[in-house]
């Protein structure tokens, strides 16, 4: 039986690399008010899993990259992890998936590349022994670095050095019915080449779009193009029937001077239009019958994240629980956003449609 870890089309990543964000119990209140039913966390924090008990919110938990080598050696490590971090919280907390590592293939640590598949298999075997494989999906999320090419979308293909590791992994996920998860950020693409990428194309705003001559398909936004590039790569690798789900996407509301496009207005535009697009439950040009699904990064601005300023400013909400900008959600505390509200039900053309 194939388990679905993502029952809607819109989810959020609940990152917690911060020392000033609301406690998990308040986060449950926030998510319920926003009617967000699918979330991902990057660990298996017990305070979070306890707070989500009985909430009805479906959660994907994460096995940190630092655990993969130990888990790849034998099933005991995986079984111990599940008995400690999963079993005690079932069935009250709706753990629907276990993400094995994050952005492993394409990283610089080839030892982790080698550990990923055996770790995933051991976690699945442990779940199987506990009769949980019909309730919890085993998965992993990839970065855009796994692709050798991605433009135009039909040219999507995995890197030659990644393929020997990717193909067996896809074979396993195909056998157990798991989708392909990709972290896709039009923001990062635009930031890296602002002079050649139309920001309207990145933000789902009106633009001339791009044409893929091989498939004779037209793209009016980069998000769809990134998803279809993943579908093309999967097809070339022999997995044309595998579903693609976006495990992370988002737009920073603040950045360093050299981070083009990182503004409140752009972040609001991207996240408003993305949500509107996902709630329509429509497919992409290359896979029109498969509803696009995505988890937005991230729930909160995370003040302790390293790296450029943008890394600490991806949140839909500020650390105090107020909205970063208005895309139709209600914060834990009232806020005075710099931009007026917009209803997702408005059908007339608006300034950010």
Automatic annotation (TrEMBL):
Pfam families noted in UniProt: Glyco_hydro_17
UniProt keyword Signal, yes or no: yes
Entries under SUPFAM superfamilies matching the protein: (Trans)glycosidases
GO biological process: carbohydrate metabolic process
EC number from the UniProt entry: 3.2.1.39
InterPro entries linked: GH, Glyco_hydro_17, Glyco_hydro_17_plant
Enzyme class at the top of the EC tree: hydrolase
Keywords from the named record: Glycosidase, Hydrolase, Signal
Record-level Gene Ontology MF annotations: glucan endo-1,3-beta-D-glucosidase activity
Catalytic activity: Hydrolysis of (1->3)-beta-D-glucosidic linkages in (1->3)-beta-D-glucans
Annotated family: Belongs to the glycosyl hydrolase 17 family.
Protein name, entry field: glucan endo-1,3-beta-D-glucosidase
């Amino acid at each position: 039986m194939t388990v679905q870890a993502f029952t809607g089309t819109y989810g959020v990543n609940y990152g917690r690399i911060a020392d000033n964000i609301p406690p998990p119990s308040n986060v449950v209140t926030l998510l319920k008010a926003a009617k967000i039913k699918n979330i991902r966390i990057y660990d298996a924090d017990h305070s979070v899993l306890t707070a989500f008990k009985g909430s009805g919110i479906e959660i994907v938990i994460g096995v940190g990259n630092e655990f993969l080598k130990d888990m790849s050696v034998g099933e005991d490590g995986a079984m111990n992890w599940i008995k400690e971090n999963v079993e005690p919280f079932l069935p009250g907390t709706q753990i629907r998936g276990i993400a094995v590592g994050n952005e492993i293939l394409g990283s610089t640590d080839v030892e982790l590349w080698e550990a990923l598949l055996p770790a995933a298999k051991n976690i699945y075997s442990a779940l199987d022994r506990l009769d949980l494989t019909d309730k919890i999906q085993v998965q992993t999320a990839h970065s855009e670095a796994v692709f050798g090419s991605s433009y135009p979308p039909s040219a999507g293909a995995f890197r030659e050095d990644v393929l020997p590791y990717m193909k067996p992994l896809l074979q396993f996920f195909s056998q157990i019915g798991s989708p392909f998860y990709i972290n896709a950020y039009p923001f990062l693409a635009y930031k890296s080449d602002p002079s050649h990428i139309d920001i309207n194309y990145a933000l789902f705003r009106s633009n001339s779009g791009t044409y893929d001559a091989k498939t004779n398909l037209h793209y009016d936004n980069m998000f769809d193009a990134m998803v279809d590039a993943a579908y093309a790569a999967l097809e070339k690798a022999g997995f044309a029937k595998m579903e693609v789900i976006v495990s992370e996407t988002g737009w920073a509301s603040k950045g360093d001077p050299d981070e083009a496009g990182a503004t409140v207005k752009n972040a609001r535009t991207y996240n408003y239009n993305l949500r509107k697009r996902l709630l329509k439950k429509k497919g992409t040009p290359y896979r029109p019958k498969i509803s696009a699904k995505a988890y937005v990064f991230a729930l909160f601005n995370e003040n302790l994240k390293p790296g450029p300023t943008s890394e600490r400013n991806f949140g839909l909400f500020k650390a105090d629980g107020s909205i970063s900008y208005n895309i139709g959600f209600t914060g834990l505390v009232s806020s005075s956003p710099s931009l007026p509200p917009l209803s997702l039900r408005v059908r007339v053309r608006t300034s950010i449609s």
